[in-house]
Structure formats: C-alpha cells, structure tokens
C-alpha cells in the first residue's frame, strides 16, 4: 500500500510539472515573479533602505542569468491571451525587438556579474543597467496596472 501511495505522489508531481511545462504563460509568470522577488532587496540596498548584502545581489544576478535563455521561448504565438497574462500584443508584432531586449539583459547581467560589486557604491554603478533593461521591457511590452 505504501508503495502505491509513493508511486501516486510521484505521478502527481510529474503531472503537475508537465502541466506547468506545457503552459508558457504560467511558466513565464513564475520565472518573472522569481526575478522580481530577487530584485526587491537589491533595490532596497540601492535606496539605502536595507543593508548591503552581496549574497542577495549575486542571487538576483543569477536569477536573471538563469531566466534570460528561457524567457523568449515562453512567448509563443499561442500564448497571447489567457492565464491572466499582462503581456501586450505588441510583443508578437515586434518579436525581434522584444527578443533583443533579452539579449541585452543577458549581456548587462554578465557585465554586472564580472564587476566587483562589494558595496553600495559599486552596486549603484553596476546594477542600474540591468534594471534599465527590465524597465524597457515593462514599459513597452507589459500591460500597465
């Protein structure tokens, strides 16, 4: 009986993962939410609201670096609507420009990772380019709230 329960749990977990993998809207929203959560403390550091924490800066940059290669593929033509997406139709009208933003973000993340971010001053010098890339995408391709 125990083996059956374990097998059922494994199958359920596999089905849930497969379901998310087949839902690009849900997957991109999950990835972008993770990026947002990783970014919040870094912005707080830049504003002087929280103490500098290099580990959190590195975690944010790693979050971006891991997401960049995945995100362009999570905007297929059949994901323009549904899933409470905030993606604007303009994404699919300007697909090359939209995908170029991810390329730029990836490049700026690599530059920020290569720089010696050791304090708030070096964070303020390196991180704004990354945030500017995010803002450009949000401004042009995300539904305003």
List its salient traits.
disordered N terminus, mainly alpha, 145 residues
List the helices and strands and how they pair.
Layout: H1 2-21, H2 24-46, H3 54-67, H4 90-93, H5 95-114, H6 120-126, H7 128-141
Helix pairs in contact: 2-3, 3-5, 5-7
Report the end-to-end length measured between terminal Cα atoms.
50 Å
CATH architecture: Up-down Bundle
Based on CA atoms alone, the radius of gyration comes out at 18 Å
* Secondary structural class: mainly alpha
How many domains make up the coordinates? 1
Share of helical residues: over 70%
Helix count, per DSSP? Answer: 7
Total count of strands: 0
Order of helices and strands: HHHHHHH
Strand proportion = under 5%
Outline the biggest β-sheet. Answer: none
Q: What is the overall pLDDT average?
A: 88
* Shape verdict: elongated
Describe this structure in words.
The chain has helices at residues 2-21, 24-46, 54-67, 90-93, 95-114, 120-126, 128-141. The protein starts with a helix and ends with a helix. It is 70% helix and 0% strand. It has one domain (24-141): Up-down Bundle (Four Helix Bundle (Hemerythrin (Met), subunit A)), CATH 1.20.120.10. Helix 2 (24-46) runs antiparallel to helix 3. It is built from seven helices and no strands. The chain is mainly alpha-helical. The model is unreliable at 1-19 (pLDDT under 50). The radius of gyration is 18 Å and the shape is elongated.
